[in-house]
Amino acid sequence: MFPPQCSQNSLISSLSIRALREKVREDPDFLFSYIEEIYKVIEKHEHQLRAYITVRPKEEVLRDAEALLKSNNLGPLAGALIAVKDNISTSGIRTTCASRMLESYIPPYDATVITRIKNAGGIIIGKTNMDEFAMGSTTENSAFYPTLNPWDLERVPGGSSGGSAAAVAACEATAALGSDTGGSIRLPAAYTGTVGLKPTYGLVSRYGLVAYASSLDQIGPIGRYVEDVAIMLEVISGHDPKDSTSLKVAAKDYGSYVVDRPIKTYRIAVIEEMVEEGVDREVMAVFNKTLERLESYGLSVEFRKMPIIRYSLPVYYIIAMAEASSNLARYDGLRYGLAQEVEGRLWTEVYKRVRSMGFGKEVKRRILLGTYVLSEGLYEGYYLKAAKVRRLLYEEFMRLFKEFDLALSPTSPILPPRLGEVIDDPLKLYSLDVNTVPINLAGLPALSVPGGFIRGLPVGIQVFGPHFSEGWLLNVARLIEVAGK
Ligand code: GLN
Question: Ligand 1 — pocket residues by CB below 6 A?
Answer without folding.
Answer: 134-137, 160, 180-184, 212, 320, 433
